[in-house]
């Protein structure tokens, strides 16, 4: 009951009809792409070697979901100032084999949904939003996660709300919701809830494949699926957390604003973060990209901050194709990926967690300035 209540509340938050709870945001990504490979979608089903555009810089399980379903990722570049897809590069990534776009709202900063949704509509492409970093963000007054055919979210402890581990796939489409649930729940064809029997009234009446007539529909499998369900205990936590989301997001925005104001005088050394005019970010972190002519490198700054007890993280995987896991992986690259390489070599982020106080945020600002002034480095 807690899982169903959490799913309803989450879908309502995005203004969508359906949400499916699972055990992680990475699983949500896997389920979203797997659902689009179902033959139930007939000529719109993604098939092996079809191309899916994503960005070169991001978290690996966005890319992995494409590879794990036998599809070909096409890597578009990112804008270092936003961390999001570079729209001209997205255009360059299109081909006759493009069937879907799967993009992340990086660090809670919405990508250009006007441009991306226009491309998807014009070419009849599936659009999947990786909203794992961005719960509570808006674009043009509408929640991110509500624009795509499917969207995903993560409830890992560092995210906007947490269930310990957990994720969600959301959609307005009843068919896509059923496909996501099928792949989540072992690939079964039946949609009865646990403890429920014969909701369709045809449990022993159907014909499926070469199974005997009337084979128990609760044990008919229409997809090669997984077991990626979240638990009711996790969902109970998620429901309580969701009720506090607005306060969490407000605190993150407050901490971001303190860092932005305090570091503005270092814009000649650190590329200032940017966002679309229609975007209202729900910040997951404060991005930092050291300028090439800053007079110091990213690594020295990171070591200094860590030495002062200020946690840092790289821009996730950075240019993901540079990692050993992807040596030999079948993918296509759109252009030189200068932006992705910039965030790999010169980018990182610091936290804006709601528990950070004004004094803590000012300590971070002071530490950046101490480093630039040359103190203790």
Strand order of the largest sheet: 1-9-8-5-4-2-3-14
The helix-and-strand class reads: alpha/beta
Poorly predicted segments: none
Alpha-carbon Rg, integer: 22 Å
N-to-C SSE series?
Answer: HEHEHEHEHEEEEEHHHEEEHEEHEH
Number of strands: 15
Helix content: 25-40%
Mean pLDDT: 97
What is the general shape?
Answer: globular
The biggest beta sheet is recorded as: 8 strands, mixed
Count of alpha and pi helical runs: 11
Work out the strand percent. Answer: 15-25%
State the end-to-end CA separation. 55 Å
How are the SSEs ordered, and which strands pair?
Blueprint: H1 2-14, E1 18-22, H2 25-35, E2 51-55, H3 60-68, E3 72-76, H4 87-93, E4 98-104, H5 113-123, E5 126-130, E6 138-139, E7 142-143, E8 150-154, E9 167-171, H6 174-184, H7 232-242, H8 245-263, E10 270-271, E11 279-280, E12 285-290, H9 298-307, E13 312-313, E14 332-333, H10 338-346, E15 347-351, H11 358-372
Parallel strand pairs: 2-3, 2-4, 3-14, 4-5, 5-8
Antiparallel strand pairs: 1-9, 6-7, 6-11, 8-9, 10-12, 12-15, 13-15
Helix pairs in contact: 1-7, 2-3, 2-6, 8-11
Q: How does this structure look, described?
A:
This protein is of the alpha/beta class. The chain contains eleven helices and 15 strands. It has an eight-stranded mixed beta sheet, sandwiched between helices. A four-stranded antiparallel beta sheet has the order 10-12-15-13. A hairpin with a 2-residue loop joins strand 6 (138-139) and strand 7. Helix 1 packs parallel to helix 7 (232-242) and helix 2 packs parallel to helix 3 (60-68). The longest helix is centred in the C-terminal third of the chain and has 19 residues, at 245-263. It is globular, with a radius of gyration of 22 Å.
């Amino acid at each position: 009951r807690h899982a169903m209540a959490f799913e309803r509340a989450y879908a309502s938050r995005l203004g969508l009809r359906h949400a499916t709870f699972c055990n992680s945001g990475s699983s949500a990504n896997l389920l979203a792409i797997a659902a689009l490979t179902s033959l139930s979608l007939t000529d719109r089903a993604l098939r092996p070697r079809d191309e899916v555009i994503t960005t070169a810089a991001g978290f690996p399980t966005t890319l992995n979901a494409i590879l794990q379903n036998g599809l070909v990722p096409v890597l578009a570049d990112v804008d270092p100032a936003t961390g999001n897809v570079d729209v001209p590069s997205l255009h360059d990534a299109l081909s006759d084999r493009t069937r879907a776009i799967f993009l992340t709202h990086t660090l809670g900063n919405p990508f250009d949904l006007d441009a991306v949704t226009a491309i998807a509509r014009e070419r009849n492409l599936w659009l999947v939003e990786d909203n794992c970093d961005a719960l509570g963000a808006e674009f043009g007054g509408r929640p991110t996660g509500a624009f795509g055919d499917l969207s995903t979210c993560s409830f890992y402890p560092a995210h906007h709300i947490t269930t310990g581990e957990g994720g969600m796939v959301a959609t307005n489409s009843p068919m896509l919701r059923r496909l996501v649930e099928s792949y989540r729940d072992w690939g079964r064809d039946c949609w009865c809830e646990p403890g429920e029997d014969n909701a369709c009234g045809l449990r022993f009446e159907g014909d499926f494949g070469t199974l005997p007539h009337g084979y128990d529909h609760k044990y008919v499998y229409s997809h090669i699926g997984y077991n990626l369900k979240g638990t009711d205990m996790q969902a109970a936590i998620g429901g309580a957390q969701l009720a506090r989301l607005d306060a969490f997001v407000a605190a993150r925005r407050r901490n971001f604003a303190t860092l932005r104001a305090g570091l503005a005088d270092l814009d000649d050394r650190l590329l200032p973060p940017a966002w679309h005019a229609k975007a209202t970010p729900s910040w997951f972190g404060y991005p930092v990209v050291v300028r090439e002519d800053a007079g110091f490198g990213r690594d020295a700054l990171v070591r200094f901050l860590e030495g002062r007890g200020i946690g840092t993280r790289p821009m996730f995987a950075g240019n993901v194709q540079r990692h050993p896991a992807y040596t030999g992986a079948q993918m296509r690259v759109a252009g030189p990926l200068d932006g992705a390489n910039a965030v790999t070599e010169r980018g990182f982020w610091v936290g804006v967690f709601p528990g950070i106080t004004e004094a803590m945020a000012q300590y971070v600002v002071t530490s950046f300035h101490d480093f630039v002034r040359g103190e203790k480095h």
